[in-house]
Amino acid sequence: QITEALLKERDKQAKWNGIPLLLQKLYEQSHPNSDFSQCQSILKEISPLLSMEAMTFVTEDRKAAQESTFPNTYTFDLFGGVDLLVEILMRPTLITQKKKQKISDDLIKDCLSILYNTCICTEGVTRRLAERNDFVLFLFTLMTNKKTFLQTATLIEDILGVKKEMIQLDDIPNLSSLVSSFDQQQLANFCRILAVTISELDTGSDDKHTLLAKNAQQKKNLGPSRAEVNQATLLNIPGFIERLCKLATRKVSETTGTSSFLQELEEWYTWLDNALVLDALMRVANEEAEQSSTESSDESGLANTSTRTQLPQSMKIMHEIMYKLEVLYVLCVLLMGRQRNQVHKMIAEFKLIPGLNNLFDKLIWRKHSASALVLHGHNQNCDCSPDITLKIQFLRLLQSFSDHHENKYLLLNSQELNELSAISHKANIPEVDAVINTDRSLVCDGKRGLLTRLLQVMKKEPAESSFRFWQARAVESFLRGTTSYADQMFLLKRGLLEHILYCIVDSECKSRDVLQSYFDLLGELMKFNIDAFKRFNKYINTDEKFQTFLNQINSSLVDSNMLVRCITLSLDRFENQSDAKVAEVLSECRLLSYMSQMSMRMSFLFRLINIIHVQTLTQENVSCLNTSLVILMLARRKEKLPFYLRTLQQMEYTEKYPGFILNNFHSLLRFWQQHYLNKDKDSTCLENSSCISFTYWKETVSILLSADRTSPCAIVSYIDEAYMDIDRDFSEE
Q1: What is the pTM of this model?
Q2: Is the distance from CB of 339 to CB of 331 less than 8 angstroms?
Q3: Up-side HSE of residue 263: CA atoms within 13 Å toward CB?
Q4: What single string gives the DSSP state of each residue in 72-84?
Q5: What is the phi/psi pair of residue 723, to 5°?
Q6: Quick count: other Cβ atoms within 10 Å of Cβ 293?
Q7: Rg of the chain taking only CA atoms, in angstroms
Q8: Which fold has domain 1-163?
Q9: Residue 253, Cα to own-chain centre: how many angstroms?
């Protein structure tokens, strides 16, 4: 509505660079009956003004960029440019006439490109677009067109990143045929978008949320969450999982022709997404090109033409790594979701594990090449290079794959499975059903299975490496569930126990996360296994070493309590066996002798109860409560429960603070009932890890919580009336 004259007059002073005038022209050219023929030339004028700014934004340090302003994109948005482009893009969907209007691919590309640049530079634009559900769903329909696929995908990814409400994949028109129209490259890029739609919004800090808050949240959410519904939608797309498995396991040499890839790279380049990665790629490409041209200077003419069309290997590898990252992430989320068993079956059938095993040396754990890709200002080991993210994603996938699932034996090859059977026969114990039932046609092939390869790289990992945590978690999840002597021996034979002890004691590991994962792994490896305790004693063979080990355990009981639980349970079982070998280890092993002292067990119990409170319980530290319960259940079996409670009472008096431990423990146990007796709660984990029936857990808690002050096993009998503080309800804040 502003006159042209006024716009012209203000333009210079306001430094609008003619953008309002161009927008006015665009508006006139895009009336409902126009053929859009003029629009493109107008956009071609606007586009460079905006892309220059976007370029600055991406290449400058982000912080500096946020403080500087981007006048062109701001002006473009201020004068309604964003809404106008959305309207032009969506125009064909509004027309019902038989003669559908066709917008040229180039025009669509330009519109998307400008929208993306505006989103990057101007605060709030992305959010505004995200609120328009019709536009977001419309963007998905543009993905069927190969020529505009990348632009569309990048814009969608940006928009979904800020969208408050997660979209329902079900709402996307013809989702199945859309996905089946993608080639493998597009499917990998599509996985980037899917990642946002299938992950719970705040899973990042899952361990940190208090259980009270989580339980309260669960009461509110009765049905499945949007992410869960979206996971189910994906699984119902025919052939979806199979294609992901193919993508995840294809070799670099199998990737498609180079020309389309070069063209795609150019698109990416003008498209600015991941500019950092591209700069790095381009640098490597140039280095390799220079190398090959100096090597064959006499045929330089030939060399140059071939380098032009042939892509450097490291670039292909990088490309492949970035694809696999997205795919493994999606598979990993699905493996942890509600349809876990269905996903497991499919992943096994489509041979994901043997496929990854074949890629292990060449791609996943490859040695960095001389020109290893390092992004600006980063070193090779910082956690944001694609190489590193791929390794972590791969380890997370292994962890969720083998956690409490019989398919975990697919991580071995046939010889290794035979070795497990042989271990069982030799020890005269029945073979595990899951080993017998493993389909040998789906296991790893080659000299080693994935698990053994993982152990090899784990031992070579430098002390301060960030992978140690994930490696230990992946191996530990293989041992989780019902304790299997054969599984433990398989790993003990490969020197895992010595490696863990070396890290805990000799390299005096300082990282809390790594220590926790090593303690958990050590607990699973040694539980009920007399040979493991014998090996432990052989390695920790001086008082000094043993003291260092104890110091590490005591430095943080939240991290080491699973190991304390394992030693307590093992000691209890060994004391009830009448085997000469067991008796010998019992008398010699420093660790078992230490734990058999009543005063030590009491000290652990006292501290375990003291470091947690109902208000601060999380998924991570609730194990301290269960470990303290294990100590008391074993005491109850030996009819020593009253003695333990009385000792706790005396310890309170020594600390000059009567009631503070027992009142707290009373509240914790009431919370335990509320939490574990919930119908959705899975109690098999507690049973499997302790070999104590869940009924016994429940009974013990009831006895401890009895209100009868004359009962020798009730906590209240040991709190003086004056110090009673147990009737408060938990606030679920």
Answers
A1: 0.85
A2: no
A3: 9
A4: HHHHHHHTTHHHH
A5: -105, 10
A6: 15
A7: 31
A8: Leucine-rich Repeat Variant (1.25.10)
A9: 28
Give the pLDDT band of residue 394 (cuts 50, 70, 90): very high
Of 728, 617, 708, residue with least CA distance to 663: 728
Rama region for 272: left / alpha / beta (φ>0; ψ in -120 to 50; rest): left
Q: How far apart are CA 80 and CA 23, in angstroms?
A: 8
> Could you write out the DSSP letters of every residue in 572-617?
HHHHT---HHHHHHHHH-HHHHHHTSHHHHHHHHHHHHHT--GGG-
Tokens (6 digits) for 596: 């058999």
- Cα separation of 357 and 365, whole Å? 11
The residue length of the chain stands at 733
Q: Which residue has the tokens 């034979």?
A: 493
Is 675 exposed, middle or buried (CB count within 10 Å of its CB: 0-12, 13-18, 19+)? middle
664, exposed or middle or buried, with CB in 10 Å at 0-12, 13-18, 19+? middle
Q: Three-state SS for 442?
A: helix
pLDDT tens digits, one per residue of 44-100: 777 766 666 666 665 555 544 454 566 776 777 777 778 888 888 887 776 655 455
The whole-angstrom separation of Cα 341 and Cα 347 is 10
Within the chain, how many helices (H) and strands (E) appear? 40, 0
Count other C-beta atoms under 10 Å from residue 102's C-beta.
Answer: 10
Q: In Å, what is the CA distance from 528 to each residue of 324, 537, 589, 638?
A: 39, 15, 14, 19
